[in-house]
TrEMBL record, chain A:
Gene3D superfamilies: 3.10.20.30, [2Fe-2S]-binding domain. SUPFAM superfamilies: 2Fe-2S ferredoxin-like (SSF54292), CO dehydrogenase ISP C-domain like (SSF47741). Keywords: 2Fe-2S, Iron, Iron-sulfur, Metal-binding, Oxidoreductase. PANTHER family: OXIDOREDUCTASE WITH IRON-SULFUR SUBUNIT. Residues 2-78 form the 2Fe-2S ferredoxin-type domain. It comes from the Bacteria. This is Purine hydroxylase delta subunit apoprotein. The keyword Oxidoreductase applies. CDD domains: fer2. The lineage of its organism: Bacteria, Bacillati, Bacillota, Bacilli, Bacillales. It comes from Natribacillus halophilus.
TrEMBL record, chain B:
One of its GO terms (molecular function) is iron ion binding. SUPFAM superfamilies: CO dehydrogenase molybdoprotein N-domain-like (SSF54665), Molybdenum cofactor-binding domain (SSF56003). Pfam families: Ald_Xan_dh_C (PF01315), MoCoBD_1 (PF02738), MoCoBD_2 (PF20256). It comes from the Bacteria. InterPro entries: Ald_Oxase/Xan_DH_a/b, Ald_Oxase/Xan_DH_a/b_sf, Ald_Oxase/xanthine_DH-like, AldOxase/xan_DH_MoCoBD1, AldOxase/xan_DH_MoCoBD2, AldOxase/xan_DH_Mopterin-bd_sf. Gene3D superfamilies: Aldehyde oxidase/xanthine dehydrogenase, a/b hammerhead, Aldehyde oxidase/xanthine dehydrogenase, molybdopterin binding domain. This is Xanthine dehydrogenase D subunit. Residues 35-141 form the Aldehyde oxidase/xanthine dehydrogenase a/b hammerhead domain.
Length: 161, 780
């Protein structure tokens, strides 16, 4: 057992657990944040994606010992039902979620991608950015539309474009 | 007209005046899904939980000589180790034939077989205990090929032999037709062992509650049938079991059969009231989960110079793996659909569902039609090319219309939109401008092709199975309404449709409706979420129930206010006066009155889905009454140096009857298109000598966002007379015609026909090199 500290969704947290436990397990089991899902456990699907710093990372591949003092944001930290992010709103409006099991990971990846860009992304840019997230239900088209519409709304809100 | 027929004919409901039905409506479960707040059952957690694990067979086919569990049992932290000896009731399950042991006793028939179960304090201890169980095996000869399994040489995997079922449909005289045909095409097609690859692997919870009720929370596709199968194994009354089967992180048919429910139930009996969790790793899911049946399909098609198809002969062999599950129903549906939505006068179709030691195959979106549509659609294209006819015109010439006889010989009375879907295809931008697109490949060594295909898929169960729909509507204390319908939310958005229908018929906002699905203590038995049936069934069941709720509400208000019920209506969760729309009472006031008077605030009703009257003997359930139809136009680009193929554009033209929710429909056509692309180009679970070579999503490639083409949906609405809103179903046909369309588009681009799917770069490359592409044989 080791004491490990990190920032999670803006709050300082301390956990006592084996340092070899994956970050995903710690989030789901110790922190009760089950938005991040395990689907492959091998870095193949992206359904466990969380933001570490600004980057979307597969939390099934990260050991909790590696995130000492890091700042982590999960889907729950991006927005909950009463304070949803523009990305989440766009996903609902455009129908970009079906069974929804992949959705949190995709929201995290989309959020991280949109942070870095200053324009409405092209389809090709979105395809490159989201290439690591599998979805079996939607066929991805509505995910692409949702991300473009989120970008448009984001700029509309901030008056950038 | 008989009573039954009358009950199945509704006045056409006008969608124009609707507030909710037929509109583009966002999903009701969207907010909880995009925020991660929805707790799927595999997300639940209990502080006093224990972990369950399953020991799977080490060999694909072996005798069990001995099972030693003592070491595992004495490991600290182990709560119980169970084997076949611990099964109180019947040691078997399976939807059609319960031929799969819950825990194997004397023989294992595939590496999915379960031999023992463990419950332990932690997942690690449970894993260790699994390793400590020693099973003594005597390996037996492995049956790896379905055709071999059917010969006398192969060892019997089940007492009655390896052919589980043999179904046939004969119509007309194929021999005569072949004798007189102008052209005959004959080919053999092979299809892949596709994996559902739902993102949520199989898992859930078992718990014996304080009152003795056994509670199983496990994603599934038919709570009542899961409950029945659990009850048989436990030897207890189903009433004592509470199954919650919704929501699912994806199903596609792969959770139609029992997954881990019975293991959870058995373990829960030994954990002294502590909840037990099983959640399969992806590796275990790949090894133990259902797959799509790989088929070998031999097809011989005859046509005349004018493009009329005169005969079709099909022999389909399905590898169901070690157990039947829904295999017999899959092969029946394959046989029923093997000639496409056409009126071929002479057909001879037979199908075999065959046991091997290749894992297990079962239900999967499309249910056998994916495998057989390829033969007829490819042959139609070959005929069209031979006689120099447009591929859409030849299809239009051969399709049946409503009221005409299908290839299997029955008059199709339900709605048929095929012809219109083909017309839409003919006029779509991709088809009309195909030559321009084809002349613009992205690189000089790449070639583009455009092709069309059409297919169909039955809605609801066949003639040999009962098919009921049911719904209940309850007035809640806060004046809102709760609608409960059996078919689970597996991702399709059926729950949103149920809320739309309920809000429409009870004249309120969708936000005033809460929806419950898949829960034996909340929903009535209304059948499966499968067979493209849940929109049809749920919408009709709610439409039969809503008038009862209106009667209850207006009747109660009439009693309270002494106004005739006929002058009263409901609107926005109030009862109003019909004349001036003035509010008379709120639903909360009605609720209070009813509960003081100890009157139930819940109403419910059932209906029986329409069926054909006459079965086709020997077909195993054909014909169905209702079908959904779809035509696809696709454009591909093939790299002639490597064989790599991209699908660049897809036009999906579905006929699902009246569209209930345009966004939901597009969700199906787009998701179906991508799943069809995966099936055609990439996906195949490799099993060699009975062992899975595929292990996870790293070596099983499903399409990613990078492979997503531009997908356009152009709905055709041929209203179904037996549904109050004109709805049919669409969940399966959306992934069917795209398969032969891609295959023909590859041919259009390169001149190469791949007949063995998936059409991997290697197979396409070899087909391009080979000169043995099919040439028409002279029949005389
Ligand atoms: S679960 Fe982490 S990438 Fe799949
Ligand atoms: S919505 Fe089901 S996997 Fe993406």
């Amino acid at each position: 057992m080791k004491k490990i500290q990190f920032h999670l969704n803006g709050k300082k947290e301390t956990v006592h657990c084996p340092p070899a436990k994956t970050l995903l397990e710690v989030l789901r089991e110790d922190m009760g944040l089950t938005g991040s899902k395990e689907c492959c456990g091998k870095g193949e699907c992206g359904s466990c994606s969380v933001l570490i710093g600004d980057e979307a990372i597969c939390s099934c591949l990260i050991l909790v010992g590696q995130v000492e003092n890091e700042s982590i944001v999960t889907v729950e930290g991006i927005g909950l039902q009463d304070n949803m992010d523009v990305v989440q709103e766009a996903f609902i409006k455009e129908g970009a979620t079906q069974c929804g099991y992949c959705t949190p990971g995709i929201i995290v990846a989309a959020k991280s991608f949109l942070k870095d860009i200053e324009h409405v992304p092209t389809v090709e840019e979105i395809k490159t950015a989201l290439g690591g997230n599998l979805c079996r239900c939607t066929g991805y088209q509505k995910i692409i539309t949702a991300i473009q519409s989120a970008a448009r709304n984001k700029f509309a809100l901030s008056g950038e474009a | 007209m008989s009573i039954g027929e009358k009950a199945n004919t509704h006045k056409e409901y006008s969608n124009e005046r609707n507030q909710w039905i037929g509109k583009r409506i966002a999903r009701i479960d969207g907010p909880e899904k995009v925020t991660g707040e929805l707790k799927y059952m595999t997300d639940e957690n209990y502080s006093n939980m224990v972990w369950g694990k399953v020991l799977r067979a080490e060999y694909p086919h072996a005798k069990i000589k001995n099972i030693e569990t003592e070491k595992a049992e004495s490991l600290p932290g182990v709560i119980c180790v169970l084997t076949y000896k611990d099964i109180p009731g019947f040691n078997g399950f399976g939807i059609v034939t319960p031929d799969q042991p819950v825990l194997c006793e004397d023989v294992v028939r595939c590496t999915a077989d379960a031999v023992a179960l463990v419950a332990a304090e932690t997942s690690e201890i449970a894993d260790e205990a699994i390793n400590l169980i020693h099973v003594d095996y005597e390996p037996l000869k492995v049956v790896t090929d379905a055709e071999y399994a059917m010969t006398g040489e192969a060892p019997y995997l089940h007492p009655d032999g390896n052919i589980h079922s043999h179904v046939k449909i004969n119509n007309g005289d194929v021999d005569q037709a072949f004798k007189h045909a102008d052209y005959i095409f004959e080919n053999t097609y092979y299809s892949p062992r596709q994996m559902h690859a739902f993102i949520e692997t199989e898992g859930g919870w078992g718990l014996v509650e304080e009152d003795g009720t056994l509670k199983i929370q496990c994603p599934g596709q038919y709570a009542y049938r899961d409950r029945l199968q659990i009850s048989r194994t436990l030897g207890i009354n189903p009433e004592r079991i509470h199954v919650i089967s919704s929501p699912n992180g994806g199903g596609f048919g792969g959770k139609d059969e029992i997954t881990v429910q019975i293991y959870l139930a058995l373990l829960a009996l030994h954990t002294e009231g502590r909840p037990v969790k099983i959640h399969l790793t992806r590796e275990e899911s790949v090894q133990a989960g259902m797959k799509r049946h790989p088929f070998k399909v031999q097809v011989k098609t005859a046509a005349n110079k004018d493009g009329v198809i005169t005969a079709n002969q099909v022999r389909a062999v399905a590898d169901t793996g070690a157990f039947a599950s829904l295999g017999p129903a899959v092969i029946s549906l394959a046989v029923e659909h093997a000639c496409g939505p056409y009126k071929i006068p002479n057909v001879d179709i037979e199908g075999f569902c065959v046991y091997t030691n290749n894992g297990i195959a079962g239900a999967f979106r499309g249910f056998g039609v994916n495998q057989v549509c390829v033969g007829i659609e490819t042959h139609i294209d070959m005929i069209a090319e031979q006689i120099n006819m447009d591929p859409i015109e030849i299809r239009k010439k051969n399709v049946y219309h409503q009221g005409e006889k299908s290839s299997v010989g029955h008059i199709v009375k339900s709605s048929v939109g095929t012809h219109e879907t083909l017309e839409k295809a003919q006029n779509c931008e991709l088809w009309t401008n195909q030559n321009i697109y084809k002349s613009q490949p992205s690189e000089p060594w790449k070639k583009r092709g455009v092709a069309v295909s059409t297919s169909f898929h039955a809605v609801g169960m066949g003639l040999d199975k009962p098919d009921y729909g049911a719904a209940s509507i309850e007035l809640l204390h806060d004046g809102r309404l709760k609608v409960a319908v059996g078919p689970e939310e597996i991702g399709t958005g059926n729950g949103t449709v149920y809320a739309q229908v309920c809000a429409e018929l009870l004249h309120c906002d969708m936000a005033d409706i809460s929806v419950v699905q898949g829960d034996t203590s909340e929903t009535l038995d209304s059948g499966t979420i499968s067979a493209s049936r849940s929109t049809y069934t749920g919408s009709r069941a709610i439409a039969t129930t809503a008038p009862l709720m209106i009667e209850l509400l207006t009747g109660t208000a009439s009693e309270m206010l002494n106004i005739p019920a006929k002058d009263i209506d409901v609107e926005d969760c109030n009862v109003i006066h019909k004349k001036d729309h003035s509010i008379l009472l709120s639903f909360t006031e009605l609720y209070d009155y009813l509960s003081i008077n100890k009157t139930s605030t819940k109403v419910n009703s059932q209906f029986y889905l329409p069926k054909e009257k006459e079965a086709i003997k020997g077909s195993g359930g054909a014909p169905h009454h209702i079908y959904g139809y779809q035509t696809n136009v696709v454009m591909v680009e093939v790299d002639t140096l490597t064989g790599e193929t991209d699908v660049l554009r897809v036009v999906s033209i579905p006929d699902c009857g009246r569209v209930m929710n345009l966004q939901g429909l597009e969700g199906q056509t787009e998701g179906g298109a991508i799943m069809g692309i995966g099936y055609t180009l990439y996906e195949d679970v490799i099993i060699e000598e009975g062992y899975h070579k595929t292990s996870n999503l790293g070596d099983y490639i499903i399409p990613t966002i990078r492979e997503t083409p531009e997908i356009e949906t152009i709905p055709v609405e041929a209203p179904e007379p037996s549904n109050p809103f004109g709805a049919k179903g669409i969940g399966e046909v959306v992934m069917i015609p795209i398969i032969p369309a891609i295959m023909s588009a590859i041919y259009d681009a390169t001149g190469a026909r791949v007949k063995h799917l998936p059409a991997t770069p290697e197979r396409i490359f070899n087909a391009m090199k080979s000169t043995t592409s099919s040439v028409p044989m002279s029949s005389r």
